């Protein structure tokens, strides 16, 4: 399939995606003293984070700033927290400073937390222009981050982070705070990390090959990085 790398083995998927991510980070650091990385939640990237943490000897993670692409409105130690998964599988295993990790403040209301995150992202991008790499997943309905089809968050044009007005339409059923398209598309490199069955293959086909027929307005189809390209990785 043009434009996508397909893997039958999840471990191979994790290994190859992690190597690609490290290559992008190393190239980014050639052009500057620091680089930035937006981390995806969900279950798919967990193995990639573990591989990055355990197989990046010689790479200095203290030069990377980390952001969370979206989060469930739950405490940081909640089983459904994206930050909890990322911290356990990756951040706890690498050397870095707390100031490198831009998380969502769960002590605020969802609206306040989204506003706070928007302001911190805006300040960062004012000084750094774009994110060097954005990692994203995709759900069986074509959503990415917490931008769901048919919901207003996917149409946000100005704010860089917003809170969903209602609980997510897919499990886990929590309200979310998510980066919006104006933030996610401020990227030099975007890596879509997918794992699943035929429904995801069909969506990926429709997005990558629009000539096969008009596709519904999948939020993932609006991922169009300003300066770079999008890479698709898929594991059965």
From TrEMBL:
Ranges of residues in domain Glucosamine/galactosamine-6-phosphate isomerase: 11-232
Listed EC numbers: 3.1.1.31
Gene that this polypeptide is encoded by: pgl
Gene Ontology molecular function terms on file: 6-phosphogluconolactonase activity
Name of this protein: 6-phosphogluconolactonase
Family: Belongs to the glucosamine/galactosamine-6-phosphate isomerase family. 6-phosphogluconolactonase subfamily.
Keywords: Hydrolase
SUPFAM superfamilies recorded: NagB/RpiA/CoA transferase-like
Enzyme class: hydrolase
The keyword Hydrolase belongs to this UniProt entry's keyword annotation: yes
InterPro entries in UniProt: 6-phosphogluconolactonase_DevB, 6PGL, Glc/Gal-6P_isomerase, NagB/RpiA_transferase-like
One BP annotation, GO: carbohydrate metabolic process
Catalysed reactions listed for this entry: 6-phospho-D-glucono-1,5-lactone + H2O = 6-phospho-D-gluconate + H(+)
PANTHER family: 6-PHOSPHOGLUCONOLACTONASE
Pfam families, alphabetized: Glucosamine_iso
Keyword Lipid biosynthesis: no
Pathway in which the depicted protein is active: Carbohydrate degradation; pentose phosphate pathway; D-ribulose 5-phosphate from D-glucose 6-phosphate (oxidative stage): step 2/3
């Amino acid at each position: 399939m043009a434009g996508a790398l397909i893997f039958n083995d999840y471990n191979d998927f994790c290994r190859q995606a992690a190597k690609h991510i490290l290559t992008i980070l190393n190239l980014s650091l050639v052009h500057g003293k620091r680089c930035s990385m937006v981390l995806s939640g969900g279950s798919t990237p967990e193995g990639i984070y573990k591989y990055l943490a355990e197989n990046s000897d010689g790479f200095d993670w203290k030069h990377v700033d980390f952001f969370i692409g979206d989060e469930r409105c739950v405490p940081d130690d909640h089983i459904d927290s994206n930050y909890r998964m990322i911290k356990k599988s990756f951040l706890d295993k690498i050397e870095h400073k707390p100031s490198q990790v831009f998380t969502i403040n769960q002590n605020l209301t969802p609206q306040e937390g989204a506003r706070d995150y928007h302001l911190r992202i805006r300040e960062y991008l004012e000084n750094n222009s774009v994110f060097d790499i954005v990692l994203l997943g995709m759900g069986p309905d074509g959503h990415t981050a917490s931008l769901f089809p048919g919901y207003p968050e996917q149409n946000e044009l100005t704010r860089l982070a917003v809170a969903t007005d209602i609980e997510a339409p897919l499990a886990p059923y929590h309200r979310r705070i998510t980066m919006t398209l104006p933030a996610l598309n401020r990227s030099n490199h975007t890596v879509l990390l997918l794992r699943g069955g035929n429904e995801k293959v069909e969506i990926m086909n429709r997005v990558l090959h629009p000539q096969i027929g008009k596709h519904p307005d999948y939020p993932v189809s609006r991922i169009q990085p300003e300066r770079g390209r999008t890479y698709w990785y898929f594991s059965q």
